[in-house]
Amino acid sequence: MEASADAGAAAAAAAARTLRWAGRAGHLGGFPRAAVFAAVGAFAKAYASLLNTTTVHNADALLRLVSARPPGTPLLTVSNHMSTVDDPLMWGFKGFPISDAKLGRWVLTAEDICFRNVVMSYMFRLGKCVPITRGGGIYQEHMNEALDVLINGDWLHSFPEGKIAQDDEPIRRLKWGTASLIVRAPVTPIVLPIVHSGFEKVMPENLFFGRRPPVPLWGKKIDIIIGDPIEFDMASLKQEASAVPHDSSSERKGWPIITPDGLEEAAQRWLYQKMSDKIQSVMERLRKKLLNLKQH
């Protein structure tokens, strides 16, 4: 009984801290959200289009899907993660409607960084940010919030590497959370890969005595490449996953069985790894293509 009460109190504290209600479109008539998108959009435009030089390859692929994809079809963009300002600056390039709160992306953000107090929680909620608890697992309550975004047919952005990496190395092994959202969404989202470079110079992690600069830097070159949608034959993948031998050693993890497909934990693990490997492979090819374009 005492443990249950403690869990309830912890859940209530988390809800109070993360202020999900502030992220609703109708909160105060939508005016606070519109104001935040206008301000952040102006900031991103200034840094991406005026203070730095940004080159975007295949921008039309993103613009088309953001503005005119089939009704009810969710969009899931995935990218590498090079700095704390990747989002929103990566959307600040010329021609992109970053100040449009209705079209704007939802984005997965680290709870311990962006939701540290009520004021920050309120602002990031207005900016359509979904908090993710590090180490909370792919079935944490906040991931259900992210799933709701896809169920509503909206646009969600994810950094599937799960952490910032500022060295110019191959795409790292992806976390399974992004794949789990694709699998659980009732309508399979359009998965669009994006790779960028240059933000690690705009906001370096170790500039002043091992700290980030107080504001983003300027005079840098930013390159962004947008790939083609990644296709997933979910029916075939789920059928393959269902044939994976049951692993009784994984039962202690307590993962829920995915319905209506009835996929147990061993099947889920196989499926998420298979899909994550495919996304990682596509992003790595895109990274090499961007590197080649920068050299010519």
TrEMBL record:
Arranged from A to Z, the UniProt key words for this protein are: Acyltransferase, Lipid metabolism, Membrane, Transferase
Q: State the source organism's domain of life.
A: Eukaryota
Which GO BP terms, alphabetically? lipid metabolic process
Q: What Gene Ontology cellular component terms go with this record?
A: membrane
Q: What is its main location?
A: membrane
| Residue span(s) of domain Phospholipid/glycerol acyltransferase | 75-199
Task: Tell me if Acyltransferase is a UniProt keyword of this record.
Answer: yes
As for subcellular location, the record says: Membrane
Which GO molecular-function terms appear in the entry? acyltransferase activity
Under the heading Pfam families, the entry gives: Acyltransferase
CDD domains per record? LPLAT_AGPAT-like
SUPFAM superfamilies hit by this protein: Glycerol-3-phosphate (1)-acyltransferase
Protein family (similarity comment) = Belongs to the taffazin family.
Name used for this protein in its record: Tafazzin family protein
